Amino acid sequence: MTTEFILPDQSKTGGLGTYIWNQAKLLSDLGFEVSIYQPGSINQKFYYFGNKVLFREFKLPSFKPTVFQILLHFFIKRIKKYSFVHYLKLKSNAKNINSFLEEEFKVRPVDIIQYVNLNGLGYFPVSSIPNIIRISSLTDFYNELGKGYYGLRSEIVNAQIKFEKESYKRAICIVGPSTYSLNQIKTNPTQLKLHLPTPIGFHFEKAELIKRNQILKIGYFGNIDYRKGVDLLIDATSKLRPGSFDLFLCGRLNDDSQVNSKIKDQVFSESFIHYSDSIPKNELISLMKEMDLIVLPSRVDNCPNTLLESLAMGKVVIGPNAWGFEEVITDRVNGILFESGSLNSLVDAIDYFMNLSVEERIEIEGNAFCLVQEYSGLRVSDQIVKIYNKCIDHYKSVCAES
Predict the structure, then answer these.
(1) CA dist., res. 134 & res. 118, Å (int)
(2) Where is the Glycosyl transferase family domain (predicted)?
(3) CA distance 25 to 254
(4) Contact, 301 vs 262, CB < 8 A?
(5) What is the distance between the alpha carbons of residues 352 and 46, in angstroms, rounded to a whole number?
(6) Comparing C-alpha atoms, which of 64, 60, 82 is closest to residue 73?
């Protein structure tokens, strides 16, 4: 159950959409019946992967606040700094989603529901079916560390944060792609929190080591903004010897705050930066394969797909010592870690990479390629199924006690 499922062959597919697609394909290949539901503007359905995965978009009733609610909205907005109307809209959507799923699963019974909790989708879960909330959005951290949230007005963002936090408090089972992210969620005594691995959707052959006598190619792939630490990357690479490298940035440019406007100016003014907007997946993978080094300097993240895909190509990745990177990367063994948010530490990490011998670099790349295989195929699918069964058992025991 998600709000962000987009066809994976489209350039606008986000990290959450890619995760859902990869997980659905993996489980369906094992013989599980998987359905993806998304509230949207129309009613439609499609089947994917040889008619094994149902994608169902359904239309929600429009929300119309009462006069009293509107008056109360202006009072709360002034005192509490969040949009009461938007909060009520999210609550209405969650209630209507619950009603739709209850009727849907009378016809199509399921064993477990996974709510991907952007905008608090799991606030009103179907109580008769074991369900889990998967951490999909760290909106409060993105808003705090990014000094804004993708151009949304602050009162809208605050309403979303409030509703998402309430959803987590009501959940019986919470799963997430990293322990670090899970630890940001406050729990109650009856809740179960489990690390749910992120599957890789593609099988990669290890990319060949590019000769070191050419200009170094450094790549970044993702949203280009302060939240993802792109300013750190630009500032760090600007300290390198001119003409010794090219920096490739690929992703959506966000211009929703003063710091992001500065990043945008840097992207188009620095001669060593090569920028491209979001591109189709096959072109993206081809570009990633050309890189000598991939740097993902996020200030806040959730164990991104790009990290796993880069390692699966046998690329050296530099990432922060937080947000799930530290659970995947062992520093200077299968990648390189730096102190999260620290420019000096990132500079040191890049400098360390540039001073590696060919043999040392080949060893790190080989370790990256081998270790990340744990996130593909039967290994990760077995883990996912075991976690689902734990959540089902926990859900039933909590409901029996109550």
Answers:
(1) 9
(2) 211-361
(3) 31
(4) no
(5) 49
(6) 82
pLDDT at 8: 66
pLDDT band at 293 (very low <50, low <70, confident <90, very high): very high
Are residues 16 and 36 in contact, defined by beta-carbon separation less than 8 angstroms? no
Closest CA to 96 of 57, 61, 132: 61
User: What distance separates the 2 farthest-apart alpha carbons in the chain?
Assistant: 71
**What's the distance, CA 246 to chain centroid?**
27
Q: Which of 96, 86, 95 is nearest to 59 (CA)?
A: 96
For strand 53-59 and strand 44-48, is the pairing parallel, antiparallel, or unpaired? antiparallel
Q: Using DSSP, state whether 354 is helix, strand or coil.
A: helix
What do you get for the CA distance between the two ends of the chain, in Å?
Answer: 26
User: Band of the pLDDT at 182, cuts 50, 70, 90?
Assistant: very high
- What mean pLDDT comes out for the span 38-52? 88
* CA 219 – CA 296 distance, rounded (Å): 9
Q: Report DSSP state, residue 147.
A: T
Do 291 and 217 meet the contact criterion of CB atoms below 8 Å apart? yes
How far is Cα of residue 186 from the mean position of the Cα atoms in its chain?
20
In angstroms, the CA 56 to CA 151 distance is: 29
How is residue 136 annotated by DSSP? -
pLDDT at 207: 60
Residues composing the chain: 402
- What pLDDT does residue 214 have? 75
One-letter amino acid at 304 equals P
Residues facing 145 on adjacent strands:
none
How many Cα atoms occupy the beta-carbon half-sphere of 372 within 13 Å? 35
Sequence letter at residue 91: K
Banded pLDDT at 211 (limits 50, 70, 90):
low
Q: What is the average pLDDT across 55-71?
A: 94
**C-alpha to C-alpha distances, 25 to 14, 18, 50, 176, 306, nearest whole angstrom:** 17, 11, 10, 19, 18
Rounded to whole angstroms, how far apart are CA atoms 177 and 380? Answer: 12
